[in-house]
Backbone:
C-alpha cells in the first residue's frame, strides 16, 4: 500500500484515535413542511432527514389493517460525492433504503396507527463514509421530532478494519482502502441490535471485538442524540410558556 | 417553568419500575419497567404515583371524539358519503388528508331519509370522529356539528342561514342540510356579493 491509513503513533488520517468518533452535530426541526426533521453534520458527512406521518396510505392497497407501514428513502444528492452521482436511485441506494427502514422499524410502535403510513426521507448532501449510520441516527431524531411513539431511539456507527487494526466511525478513505466495514445500529437503552452488516473479512475474534467497539460508539452517539433532543425541546417548551 | 427542574425525557428512557409508578401518557411498560415512548417534559405526580411525559409534539391522527373539519367530496350515495378530513381541532396541521365516511344514521339526532337531506357535495362540515382508523366514521349528530359552509347546487352562490335553513338569495330556494350552529354565513350578518342585489 502506497499510503498508510494509520500513522506510527497510532493516529488515523484525520488525527483521530482508533476508538474516536468524528465531531457530530445534530439539529432538530429544521424543515417546516415536514412533520419531523433533523440534520446532522457527522465529520464531513451531511444528511438531512424529513419524516411525514402517520398519514393515510397511498396507494391504499399498501395499508395494513393492524399496523402502520414504514417507508424509507435513502438518496444521495448528485453533488454529494466527488464525481457527479446520477440522481436516479441506484442498486446501493435501494438496498440502503431497505436496511434503514428495517433498522428503525423495531423501535416504532407501528400497531398504534393501523392503516397509515410513516415516510422517512434521508437526503445525503455530502458523503464521507458511514452515511447509512448517520442516516439511521438522524432519522431516529426526526421520528422523535414528529412525536411518533418509539420504544427507544436508534443509534448507529460503523467499525472498519484498516491496516490490521479495528477503528471506530469509518470515513470514506478508510472505507475504500480498508479491509472490512461493519455498520451496526442498536436501540441503546435496550441493548438490542437492529442492523448489522459486514463487508470484507474479519476473524471470529475481530468480529466480536468490532461489535463491542461499535456498541461503545453507539452509546456515544446516543448521548449526542439525547443532548440534541434535550436542548431542542427545552427551548421549544420555554417559547410556549 | 424553572430551568433546572424540567427534565426532558426521550424515547426509551427508563423512568422507573411498575412497583413505583402508574404509567401515564407517553409511557409504556416492558418487563416490569417503565419507559418513555415520546420526547417531552417529565411529569411526576407524587400523590397519585403517576409518571407521564407531556409530549413536545403530538402526532396529528384523528382519534375517537376529535372534532374535525372537512369537505364532502363524494361520491354521494343514498346512505353515505365520503368526507375529506382537512383539519383536526387542537392538533397540528395535517400534511395530507384523511378519509372519513358519513352515514345517514350518524348525520343528525333525528331521522334522516337520505344523505342528501343532511349534506351536499362540496359542503364544508364539522364532524366528530367515531372510529379509530381510516376510513374514519364521522358523526354530525350534535348542535355544533354539521354543515358550516355550503354553496347552491344550481347557481354556485353562497347559501345563507335563514330561519334555521339554508337559503340561496339568487334562486330564492331553500336547501335541506344538517346545519351547524357555527354556520359561517348568517342572515343579517352576511355581507357577500349576492346580498347587495337583494
Residues:
Amino acid at each position: 500500500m502506497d499510503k498508510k491509513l494509520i500513522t506510527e503513533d497510532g493516529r488515523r488520517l484525520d488525527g483521530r484515535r482508533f476508538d474516536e468518533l468524528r465531531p457530530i452535530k445534530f439539529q432538530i426541526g429544521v424543515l417546516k413542511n415536514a412533520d419531523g426533521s433533523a440534520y446532522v453534520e457527522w465529520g464531513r458527512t451531511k444528511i438531512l432527514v424529513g419524516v411525514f406521518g402517520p398519514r393515510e396510505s397511498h396507494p391504499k392497497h399498501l395499508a395494513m389493517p393492524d399496523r402502520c407501514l414504514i417507508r424509507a428513502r435513502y438518496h444521495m444528492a448528485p453533488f454529494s460525492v466527488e464525481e457527479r452521482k446520477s440522481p436516479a436511485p441506484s442498486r446501493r441506494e435501494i438496498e440502503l433504503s431497505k436496511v434503514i427502514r428495517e433498522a428503525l422499524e423495531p423501535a416504532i410502535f407501528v400497531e398504534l396507527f393501523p392503516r397509515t403510513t410513516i415516510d422517512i426521507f434521508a437526503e445525503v448532501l455530502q458523503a464521507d463514509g458511514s452515511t447509512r449510520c448517520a442516516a439511521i441516527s438522524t432519522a431516529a431524531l426526526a421520528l422523535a421530532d414528529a412525536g411518533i411513539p418509539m420504544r427507544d431511539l436508534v443509534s448507529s456507527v460503523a467499525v472498519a478494519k484498516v491496516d490490521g487494526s479495528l477503528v471506530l466511525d469509518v470515513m470514506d478513505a478508510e472505507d475504500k482502502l480498508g479491509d472490512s466495514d461493519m455498520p451496526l445500529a442498536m436501540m441503546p437503552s435496550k441493548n438490542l441490535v437492529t442492523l448489522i452488516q459486514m463487508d470484507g473479512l474479519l476473524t471470529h475474534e475481530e468480529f466480536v471485538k468490532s461489535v463491542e467497539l461499535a456498541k461503545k460508539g453507539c452509546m456515544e452517539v446516543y448521548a449526542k442524540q439525547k443532548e440534541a433532543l434535550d436542548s431542542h425541546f427545552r427551548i421549544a417548551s420555554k417559547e410556549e410558556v | 417553568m424553572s430551568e433546572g427542574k424540567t427534565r426532558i425525557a426521550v424515547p426509551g428512557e427508563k423512568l422507573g419500575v411498575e412497583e413505583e409508578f402508574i404509567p401515564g401518557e407517553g409511557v409504556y411498560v416492558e418487563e416490569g419497567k417503565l419507559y418513555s415512548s415520546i420526547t417531552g417534559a417529565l411529569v411526576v405526580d407524587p400523590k397519585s404515583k403517576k409518571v407521564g411525559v407531556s409530549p413536545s409534539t403530538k402526532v396529528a391522527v384523528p382519534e375517537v371524539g376529535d372534532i374535525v373539519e372537512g369537505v364532502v367530496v363524494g361520491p354521494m350515495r343514498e346512505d353515505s358519503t365520503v368526507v375529506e378530513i382537512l383539519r383536526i381541532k387542537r392538533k397540528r396541521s395535517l400534511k395530507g388528508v384523511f378519509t372519513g365516511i358519513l352515514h345517514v344514521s350518524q348525520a343528525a339526532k333525528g331521522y334522516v331519509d337520505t344523505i342528501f337531506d343532511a349534506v351536499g357535495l362540496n359542503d364544508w362540515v364539522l364532524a366528530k370522529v367515531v372510529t379509530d382508523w381510516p376510513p374514519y366514521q364521522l358523526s354530525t349528530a350534535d348542535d355544533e356539528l354539521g354543515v358550516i359552509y355550503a354553496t347552491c347546487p344550481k347557481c354556485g352562490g353562497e347559501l345563507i342561514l335563514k330561519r334555521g335553513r339554508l337559503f340561496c338569495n339568487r334562486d330564492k330556494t331553500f336547501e335541506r342540510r344538517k346545519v351547524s350552529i357555527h354556520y359561517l354565513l348568517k342572515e343579517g350578518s352576511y355581507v357577500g356579493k349576492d346580498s347587495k342585489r337583494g
